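Inputs:
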Amino acid sequence: DGGITQSPKYLFRKEGQNVTLSCEQNLNHDAMYWYRQDPGQGLRLIYYSQIVNDFQKGDIAEGYSVSREKKESFPLTVTSAQKNPTAFYLCASSSRQVRTSLSNTGELFFGEGSRLTVL
Amino acid sequence: GNSVTQMEGPVTLSEEAFLTINCTYTATGYPSLFWYVQYPGEGLQLLLKATKADDKGSNKGFEATYRKETTSFHLEKGSVQVSDSAVYFCALSDRRGSNYKLTFGKGTLLTVNP
């Protein structure tokens, strides 16, 4: 079955430690995204990548880093510089539409999420 | 910039009640509109979508109609079930050249009691 796999589902971290969240997809999608979800605030975009070896900052990139060495993988590192890292993190992917294609509507496919708690 | 405004929750209903969750948007161009659902402890799943004005998206008894004149995409269901308890997100996807930008509302928590 095609889909997006995030791991770990739950993660605890001490203050001052970096932690990396894994995201793997087998949907053959070009674009991948990381969102952060906090109660009452909806989803906020951290980073996104439209192609291998390229990524862009989203709305709240400070304190986070990513890499995109393979099409299937887009890991997110939450660094010690992130002031309030406790949150639910969601990875998503979408097929990158061809410029002239009208069939792609920008739909995102999400993983199950990773809940990070800083102790 | 683009924005999505949806009614604040939480919404609490009894089983078999009628559901409406309001969603309005601001966007340039011709966005596609989505409703996503998030069950407790899970990621988001696409519930339904509409890609142009007057389109009606439907799935699992839920419906929403793309109203360009009122810039709205309200979610409705005629008879809710306990299993519909979840957070619902309205979103729009705006095409910019070869890229899309997805903008989400803040989500509405729905609780359905037996």
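Chain B touches chain A through 25 residues (CB under 8 Å). Flag for discussion at group meeting.
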